[in-house]
Specification:
The complex is a heterodimer. Chain A is mostly helical. Chain A is built from 9 helices and no strands. The longest helix of chain A is centred in the C-terminal third of the chain and has 30 residues. In chain B, helix 4 packs across helix 5. The chains are: A mainly alpha, B alpha/beta.
């Protein structure tokens, strides 16, 4: 079973590396959206500092959304998804592997990039550290929850828009606690509670999302 | 071993077929016939468990396939309309990855041997997007060479293949039947399978 998990991750990562345009476009989207705010709002440091957590997190959510339609879309079109569903292993394990690969190719690069972009908002060193930590714990939840939406809208016309409508509301708790952690750190309060809540969200979504996604995939394939 | 009883399929608000029953034993091949839109692919998808029949039941070795689930899928090899190969991977990587994901890893020598057998020598390291339709189909069919699972379900396996490749695939199916395997397939081509007990079922007659 672990072997299957690693096989799925290895295959998806190899595919992501062969198709770097997708990976890079989501990252550039993130960079540009975040950079537009200081340009639009002007160099008022106090305001930028206050906005930073929210802007960075919202941009991360949207960049993740951009990559979701491809999570199962390609496999669905070329028939490999059918083969994955028919493999003699539990489908939730396969799905967990795909979520992990999705996070490694979208969430993790966003997390690593975020502190650099945070500099534009004059975030303190503490703030940058907590921002990175919060994204590290929060973005895997985004991949897991997003997979449910991606599976439900598989093969539908306009699935990309639908997936945003479905998934963005579910991202709200992650957004609140993620941005809250950075806010708390910047204003000198304890941020540990926020991070623990993000961790709890991650544990919950990693447990439930693979089952929900597997069920949704079976419905979409029928 | 494989038995279907009184299967019924509804797509949208149209009934494609009803009352489809057959029984298949080891060494037998069922060739599904029918016009376009008669429901051949729908029936195959039911047989592998991708779709659920509105009514009726499919049993494998006497047990309903819904209950067997993974145990049934471990004895099943399905090839659908799509080739299920990744454009960005080479034929070799495709074959190794799909075998690994199906839970029956191949060694690199076995995979290369299979690719040579389907006539893709010299193409094993070329990304699949540079291959022709027929060559992509050959990559998909290369899976069958080391496939020893009992039930093969093949949806139009001969599409896009040239005469030599059609003979080769027919030979593979024949060898599978001789080993005591079962196969269900659809095809619009007149193909002679060299061995095994051949049966036909006509949908929508």
């Amino acid at each position: 079973m672990l072997d299957l998990l690693f096989a799925v991750i290895a295959r998806d990562l190899k595919l992501a590396l062969r198709r770097q345009a997708d990976l890079v476009s989501a990252l550039f989207f993130f960079i540009i959206v975040v950079s537009l705010f200081p340009l639009g709002v002007g160099p008022e440091m106090d305001m930028l500092r206050k906005m930073a957590p929210g802007v960075l997190w919202v941009a991360a959510l949207l960049a993740t959304m951009l990559t979701l339609p491809r999570l199962f879309g390609d496999d669905y079109r070329d028939g490999t998804l059918e083969q994955l569903v028919l493999a003699p292993q539990p489908l939730p394990v396969t799905v967990l592997g795909k979520m992990a690969a999705h996070w490694l190719s979208s969430g993790l690069p966003l997390t690593l990039l975020a502190p650099v972009l945070g500099l534009q908002f004059d975030l303190s060193a503490d703030g940058l550290l907590v921002l990175t930590l919060a994204l590290l714990v929060g973005t895997p939840s985004l991949s897991a929850i997003g997979a449910i939406g991606a599976a439900l809208t598989l093969g539908l016309r306009g699935g990309g828009v639908l997936v945003s409508l479905l998934v963005l509301p579910l991202y709200i708790p992650v957004l609140i606690f993620g941005a809250g952690a950075v806010d708390a750190a910047v204003s000198g309060l304890g941020f540990e509670a926020h991070l623990s809540l993000l961790g709890a969200l991650l544990a919950g979504s990693l447990f439930f999302a693979p089952w929900a996604t597997a069920a949704a995939l079976k419905i979409s394939l029928e | 071993m494989l038995e279907a009883s009184q299967l019924e399929c509804v797509r949208g608000d149209r009934r494609l077929f009803a009352g489809v029953s057959f029984r298949l034993e080891g060494g037998e091949l069922l060739n599904l016939q029918g016009k376009n839109g008669a429901g051949k692919t729908s029936l195959l998808r039911m047989l592998v468990g991708l779709a659920q029949p509105v009514a009726g039941e499919i049993t494998w070795r006497g047990e309903p396939i819904r209950k067997l689930a993974e145990d049934y899928r471990a004895e099943l090899c399905y090839m659908g309309h799509h080739n299920a190969i990744k454009e960005e991977l080479t034929p070799l990587e495709n074959l190794l990855a799909s075998a690994r994901l199906a839970g029956e890893p191949l060694s690199e020598e076995q995979a290369l041997e299979a690719l040579y057998a389907v006539g893709l020598a010299g193409r094993e390291d070329l990304q699949a997007k540079y291959l022709s339709q027929g060559q992509k189909r050959r990559v998909a069919l290369a899976r069958l060479i080391h496939e020893r699972r009992a039930l093969w379900v093949l949806d139009e396996p001969f599409v896009a293949l040239d005469v030599a490749a059609v003979d080769m695939v027919a030979g593979l199916i024949g060898a599978h039947l001789q080993r005591g395997g079962l196969a269900v397939m659809t095809t619009h081509q007149a193909v002679t399978i060299p061995a095994g007990n051949l049966r036909e079922y006509r949908l929508g007659a």
